Amino acid sequence: MKNTAKFVITIVLGVISDIVSKWFVFSHLDVYEKVTLIPGVVDIIRNENKGVVFGLFPGKTTVFTIVSFLAIFAIVYIYICSDKSFFLSNVALGLIMAGAIGNLWDRLWYRHVRDFIDLHIGNKYHWPTFNIADGLICVGISCMVFTSFFAAKQKESNEHPLL
Questions:
Q1: What is the pTM of this model?
Q2: Residue 134 catalytic?
Q3: What is the per-residue DSSP string for 132-161?
Q4: What is the pLDDT along the chain (163 residues), one digit of tens a residue?
Q5: Which residues lie below 8 Å from residue 103, measured CB to CB, with a gap of 6+?
Q6: Is 43 labeled as catalytic in the residue annotation?
Q7: Which residue among 18, 43, 118, 134 is the active-site one?
Q8: Rounded to an integer, what distance in angstroms lies between the CA atom of residue 99 and that of residue 143?
Q9: Which of 18, 106, 115, 118 is catalytic?
Q10: Strand extents, DSSP E, 8-149
């Protein structure tokens, strides 16, 4: 029960931070207005992504909405079947779930995903604009990869107690 609370709290905090950040940016910035946070590195700019990662496959909102629902069901299934004893894996799945819900929220209400974080090096190299939900998904997947190595090592040491 305690580990499920960590999972749920991570989801709730992640979804709230994503939705509030999108609301703040899109209600305070005009369409082509830009706010520089770190000159030459990070700007805040409004962008409407009608596709998926990097703006691929625009105009397929219905398909991506269905895929988002399937991803959420898959995450719940993985969580139910997982070993909930690792704190980081509970948080990682919660982060991924929060990101999926945040982007699904946008697709249901706006028919696109609202992105606003613009990372770049000078004016030459730009990473595609993203949002908090995308960041949560990336951090969650990174944590899952990290915990998979840790869990495999711990399982191996339990199988060979003399090593």
A1: 0.85
A2: yes
A3: HHHHHHHHHHHHHHHHHHHHHHHHHHHH-T
A4: 778 899 999 999 999 999 999 999 999 999 888 999 999 999 999 999 887 776 666 777 888 899 999 999 999 999 999 887 778 888 999 999 999 999 999 999 999 999 999 999 988 898 999 999 999 999 999 999 988 887 666 666 666 554 4
A5: 68, 113, 131, 133, 134
A6: no
A7: 134
A8: 14
A9: 115
A10: 34-38, 42-49, 113-121, 125-126
